[in-house]
Design goal:
Elements: E1 4-12, E2 15-23, H1 45-57, E3 98-100, E4 106-108, E5 116-122, H2 127-142, E6 148-154, H3 160-170, E7 176-177, H4 195-199, E8 204-205, E9 207-211, E10 217-222, H5 227-238
Parallel strand pairs: 5-6, 6-7
Antiparallel strand pairs: 1-2, 2-8, 3-4, 5-9, 9-10
Helix pairs in contact: 1-3
Length: 240
């Protein structure tokens, strides 16, 4: 499947909102209960050395775009655009999945049942996703791990080296996961949406879902979001 990307810039109540638009065809009956193929075992030391060398060769860096990193600092009640219509509705059961990290560890959404989960979809080359990574890290550090979990799914079918480079650059303290699809992507080349990305109806990067302890969608939106809004919604979903 081919996907088309363009920078989307909109103004709402005097606020410039920037996102990466992705045209995605989503089959309405798609259900993801497991990974499409068995996840690999954690990579041995030699394989991790090879992965690190491949990541080094990408020369990963932060990319730039107008108004990146502005929305995160806005008050939680700032009027922003509604989520893309393709996203799952509030109250829907969040499709389960089993995906692997760049180094081969398997992570399942259902492993975190009983916790409130922030699920992010991103691309490594997306400047808005890069801006969010730093803000989300601070938010993650402020929350008790007994009640909350974060997961990031690469929405662009990127290779393990690209994901590893992103993870290493931003020191993500939660799992970043591969969602391979066709065509394959990388930090240097946009790819197509993988099956989990399609199941969640992702249309813009970054995209966020808050999933409650029972595995249902409590809140969702795409594009950069105010830190205080995400924090507020997480606490509301957890009843804290």
């Amino acid at each position: 499947m081919q996907s088309i990307r363009r920078t989307l810039l909109l103004v709402t109540a005097g606020v410039v909102v920037v996102g990466i638009a992705v045209a995605v065809i989503v089959a309405p009956t798609v259900k993801v209960n497991a990974a499409p193929a068995p996840a690999p075992s954690p990579a041995p030391a030699a394989a991790q050395d090879s992965l690190a060398a491949a990541a080094d060769a990408l020369s990963f860096r932060q990319t730039t775009a107008a108004d990146v990193g502005v929305v995160e600092n806005l008050p939680p009640d700032t009027p922003l655009l509604a989520p893309s219509k393709s996203m799952l509705p509030v109250g829907a059961a969040a499709p389960d999945f089993a995906l692997s990290t760049a180094t081969g560890e398997t992570v399942r959404l259902s492993d975190h049942r009983g916790k409130t989960v922030l699920l992010e979809f991103f691309a490594t080359w997306c400047p808005h996703c890069q801006a969010e990574a730093q803000h989300l890290t601070r938010l993650h550090e402020s929350l008790p791990k007994t009640d909350f979990a974060f997961l990031s799914v690469n929405a662009d079918s990127e290779d393990p080296a690209s994901l590893y480079a992103f993870d290493r650059f931003f020191h993500l303290p939660w799992p970043a996961l591969l969602d391979p699809g066709i065509p394959a992507g990388s930090f240097k080349q946009a790819g197509g949406a993988g099956p989990v990305t399609r199941a969640y109806g992702v249309a813009l990067y970054p995209a966020f879902y808050i999933i409650d302890a029972k595995g249902r969608v409590y809140w969702r939106n795409d594009r950069e979001q105010p830190d205080m809004l995400i924090s507020q919604k997480l606490h509301d979903a957890a009843g804290k």
